[in-house]
Amino acid sequence: VNQLEKIVAPVKSELKTLEKRINSILRENVFNEKFTGTFLNKGKKLRPIFLFLLARALGYRENDIVDYGIIVELLHNASLVHDDIIDHSLKRRGESTFNALYGNNIAVLLGDLLFLFSNKLAVEKRKFEILDILVEKNENLLIGEIEEGLNAGNVSLTEDEYMKIIKNKTASLFELVGEIACLLTNKKENDCEAIKGMSSLIGLSFQIIDDILDYTSEVKKVGKPVMNDLREKTLTLPIIYAMKKSYDLKEKVEKFFSDVSNDTLLYEIRDGVVELGGLKYAKEKALEMMKQTRGRIDKIPPSVYKDSLLALVDFIVKRSF
Amino acid sequence: VNQLEKIVAPVKSELKTLEKRINSILRENVFNEKFTGTFLNKGKKLRPIFLFLLARALGYRENDIVDYGIIVELLHNASLVHDDIIDHSLKRRGESTFNALYGNNIAVLLGDLLFLFSNKLAVEKRKFEILDILVEKNENLLIGEIEEGLNAGNVSLTEDEYMKIIKNKTASLFELVGEIACLLTNKKENDCEAIKGMSSLIGLSFQIIDDILDYTSEVKKVGKPVMNDLREKTLTLPIIYAMKKSYDLKEKVEKFFSDVSNDTLLYEIRDGVVELGGLKYAKEKALEMMKQTRGRIDKIPPSVYKDSLLALVDFIVKRSF
Questions:
Q1: Is the per-residue pLDDT at B221 higher than 90?
Q2: Do A139 and B113 touch (CB under 8 A)?
């Protein structure tokens, strides 16, 4: 966390305002008692931080950048609420999930409401270009999640298919940040393409690292159960790579999917993924993306924001939570 | 259906276009195979029909009224998809629900996607006033559904609380129709208030009739299971009224809620509701609202659309499906 605090320093006041205002939105709502004490507003806020740093680095000086940060963070949180229903997750950021607290039924609707809060604020900005891009990226986000759901248990999922899924599922909100920063600073199309590409890469590497952490981390650190992806029959890069190298492992995974309560087999599979170099391969992919990302950020004029952007990219790949 | 066909006659071409275009939206989507053959686009389309008739009666002549009809109908369908997850419903309009077809997980996300399709088209209309009202009514819709969910099993729910819930849950989309018709025809504030009030009453009486039909109808006619509300512990007007008259009935309901598979008790409760005049009371409420509604429609200048509007209100209260 300490490292992240240093990165955030140049946009600390924006982040404080964002947190205060998200709390207000949750508190002033008719269902405020359902939102208080939940995981909402307790995340790392990587997407708004990325937005603040990027927009400032590109020269945007208005205070209303916070509004856009809230739009993105609320959208992200809404999708997490529905995600937790789908994954039957009971913990998130060390807190109980909405489905754990209120049951699936109410959780579906509270998630819908969070989507609406994001959209409401976006409509209030009175910028159709922003609404267009929000709709597009929200659609991609949903498509990615549906594709992931439809591919649950599909041991033949290829690396390309996985990349397509996470580009939609995760990179879309980072791309949204890139597009918002572009729109607000009226960048030329060429510059925009570079910024959007860079944002997308950050999102992809973020997700790959997340998928690695599911294999390597401890519950205490990530605030949610580990080895959860396989229990939900979600195939990610480390195991996709490892299964391609070992038919024996693939068979084990198929066997595990017929009884996901078999923890002995689960940890055997994990050891197999490590031995076959699945985690190493995924990490190298993420590092390669980080390198490309750094190259594109380097072209932005020097500023404290740019320095923090570079440090943020480092953090995303090196984080342990 | 025949009666409805006659009502629809003046806006038949709008309705045909709407159905064709909704089919295109569902077919051209990346998950088209998940949408085909489902209950989507198979409903009575009361909300778009109401919009077409009202807007035309108020003098709106543009073809793009169909766009607004699609926005409302898709929003309605999105909320039905999430509704069916919440109510564990397996049938809707005679077809399998999304949760029955694909499981709750995928159904949550396909519902999200339908919400998005509605919002996408709304953004394309490039009218902020429409987006404002859409956000407001969508929020009310969700609030009503959440309140209903939180009051499941609450045998102390009052008639006032029930009315507040259905005003949000159901009347909000009829109010949306009224507001859209107002905005498009640039009505003065006074006229608008009357139109909005009338739209709200139509929504309320529609829901009261729906709640009566849950007690009186047959599966074949409504295309979904009957006596479903009580099984989901949802208290509606007929039983709220009847329980106020009989403590004995209230105790029976409480007992039933502790084991909702007890069909003998369920049909005993239904008989009690009938004997205590619960259905009669609810029907009178709906008829009183219809009378008020007719009074307000009467002030609209004469036209075939106005005649159909009056017939539509009749149909809504007298329908058996």
A1: no
A2: yes
Query: d(Cα A24, Cα A2) in Å, to the nearest integer?
Result: 26
d(CA B162, CA B168): 10
- Complex ipTM value: 0.94
Contact by Cβ (8 Å): B63, B121:
no
Nearest to B108 by CA among B82, B83, B76: B82
CA distance A95 to A222: 11
Interchain CB contact of B90 with A (< 8 Å): no
Helix or strand or coil: residue A218?
Answer: coil
Instruction: Name residues whose C-beta falls within 8 Å of residue A111's C-beta, 6 or more positions apart in sequence.
Output: A78, A79, A81, A82, A85, A98, B108
Using CB atoms, which residue from A116, A132, A138 is nearest to B138? A116
Give A139-169 pLDDT, tens digit per residue. Answer: 999 999 999 999 999 999 999 999 999 999 9
pLDDT digits (tens, 9 = 90+) for A161-219: 999 999 999 999 999 999 999 999 998 888 899 999 999 999 999 999 999 999 998 76
- For residue A290, how far is the Cα from the chain centroid? 16
Look-up of token digits 């074949």: B220
**B226 pLDDT higher than 90:** no
Nearest to A82 among B108, B143, B146 (CB): B108
User: For residues B127 and B88, which has the higher predicted lDDT (pLDDT)?
Assistant: B127
Contacts of residues B90-94 at CB distance under 8 Å and 24 or more positions apart, as own/partner, are: B90/B225, B91/B219, B91/B223, B91/B224, B91/B225, B92/B39, B92/B223, B92/B224, B93/B39, B93/B42, B93/B43, B93/B223, B93/B224, B94/B39, B94/B42, B94/B223, B94/B224
Rounded Cα–Cα distance for residues B100 and B84 (Å): 9
Q: Count Cβ atoms below 10 Å from residue A110 Cβ, excluding itself.
A: 25
* Model confidence pTM above 0.90: yes
pLDDT score recorded for residue A2: 76
- The rounded distance, in Å, linking the Cα atoms of B14 and B69 is 9
Q: Is A82 on the interface with B (CB under 8 A)?
A: yes
